[in-house]
Specification:
Length: 307
Amino acid sequence: MLTQGDCLALLMHGQLIPGPRSQGKMGHGLLRYGSYPIAAVIDREHAGQTSTDVTGIPGDVPVVATIDEAIQLGANTLIPGIAPPGGILPCSWSDELIHGLLAGCNLINGLHKPMVDDPMYASALQEDCWIWDVRVEPPGLRSGTGAAGAIEIPRVLTVGTDMAIGKMTVSLECDRAATRLGYRSEFLATGQIGICISGKGVPLDAVRVDFGPGAIEQLVMDATHNKDVLWVEGQGSVLHPASTAWLALIRGAVPTHLILCHRAGQETLARVPSVRIPPLKDVISLFETVACAGGALSRPTTVGIAV
């Protein structure tokens, strides 16, 4: 829904500092990879600094304390720059978003609860402005058939030893590197942050579980024209007790190659420390064995570890 005239403000109170426990993935992803201008980051804790001062990400976006200050710097589109567990907006942020809508801003909502039909937000929306709920199940879903396994284009899926461990980042970096080398390459977004960066994709965690593989299969099949390689953004982890999306990706994309993402020195899951991360060679074997269903399907090759 974004156009060239739009300028963003990232709402990130208390979540601007990166780290394994930070909830600021949306904001960090847009600061590093977004193609649309960012007028300001809104974070009371670091107002007066720049985004580069706090995160190290190039760009020097001003950090301000309020939405009004961001609007004064040219922002016309608000984005809660967080990806919290459960995808729920902090209650204290609602009034700020409504204030921004009343002031004539658009709103991009990457969280689970839709806002476009919520009377609280819809009533504040001004004429000619819009709300984009990114996590909406796409139309025309169907069950998976394994059709992606028949195409000859390499399909590289990022998998991980944990959630929030760099799968999107690695897919984006590999896509950019392949493009620089002259390959006809495409990044396929499967989460709300990647979709906001690339402008399209499938919000997999908004898709009913029976249709997850089919949704990813269609995403892959639609991207095959005139391409040399596809980089499929991974989600979740086979090791995480709260994660299921990784299996829909494996079944839908039928990857030819895997890249395992891991945080150096991390020995347990960040939010479930009772679960230890096995040796990486064992994690690789587990992902490959699940992908090939013990030999019933083709086995992908793990071609790298991204640390």
